[in-house]
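# nightly structure sweep
# worker-07 picked up a monomer target from the shared queue
# config: single-sequence mode, recycle default, output format = structure tokens
# input follows
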Amino acid sequence: MNIGYCGGSFGTILKTTNGGSTWSALVSNTTNNIYLVCGVSENSIWAVGDSGMVLHSTNGGLNWLKEFSKTGYDLFGLEVLNDTTAWICGDNGTVVAIGHPEFITNVYEQENSNIESPTEFELFQNYPNPFNPTTRIKFSIMINAQVTMKIFDILGKEIETLIEEELSPGIYEINWDASILPSGVYFYKLEVGKFSQTKKTLVLK
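# output follows
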């Protein structure tokens, strides 16, 4: 196969279709450094990088979707098993299995393994705030539940879904990359069952 990919600084993803003789740039919609790009088929491609960033393309790199990796640590190891499953590793012993949530190991939770499980749902203020272009959002849940976190602009228009999946009790931290958004006030909203909480943040460029 003559198709190949490579990653680089500031969201760079390059693709070759002739064994490396020429390369074309793909639009990743992120400014995070990308450390590794690979896949097992021509269409399903994965990329990992700074601050827990995991990207997945199902059309050969034309479009990329962000996967929720449940960590803010840098990711630099990637083993793709099939079109929907990938093992990822990174700083401080982070191991993430996309496609097998029961095997996810979150370093933040490991470091706090002697602390009792959260007794309430809580959404924390992001840090840093204001920020450019990335920030970290932490939240806690006390039961197994479907968790949704979405971003809204000042007019209440939905901008992005950061999380939409079932999680086990614990404290989680997610990285939000707003590099493609203009400066302004935004809101991030956590929903867990009947629980809902919203906080304000500022993108300042």
